[in-house]
Amino acid sequence: MAKTIRRSGNEALRDALIAARKSTGLTQAELASRLRCHQTFVARVESGERRIDVIELIVLARAFGEDASIFLTAAEEATEPDHRI
After folding, report:
1. Which segments constitute the HTH cro/C1-type domain (predicted)?
2. Residue spans of alpha helices (H) in the chain
């Protein structure tokens, strides 16, 4: 079985977050500054080395001026029906 961090739902969430960052014209460093964290946090999330929790997703969505539900929808639509915890 594949690692859950590499599953389609996780990849869709990462892709949506990357697209949101790019559409707002932010670099990873600028996003990190908005989040008051290190650029390496953003890089690790975007590369799939690190998962984010629900609260982090809300904070990320706010940094883009978006509602977290758009990111949840992207992940939900891509998650396999038989995905195991």
Report:
1. 17-71
2. 8-23, 28-35, 39-47, 54-64, 68-78
Question: Where residue 68 falls among pLDDT bands split at 50, 70, 90?
Answer: very high
CB within 8 Å of 14: residues ≥ 6 apart: 45, 46, 48
In a domain, 45, yes or no: yes
pLDDT tier, 1 (very low <50, low <70, confident <90, very high otherwise):
very low
| Cβ-based neighbour number of residue 23 at 10 Å | 10
The angle, 0 to 180 degrees and rounded to 10, between the axes of the packed helices 8-23 and 39-47 is 130
25: region left, alpha or beta (phi > 0 left; psi from -120 to 50 alpha):
left
The CATH number of residue 46's host domain is 1.10.260.40
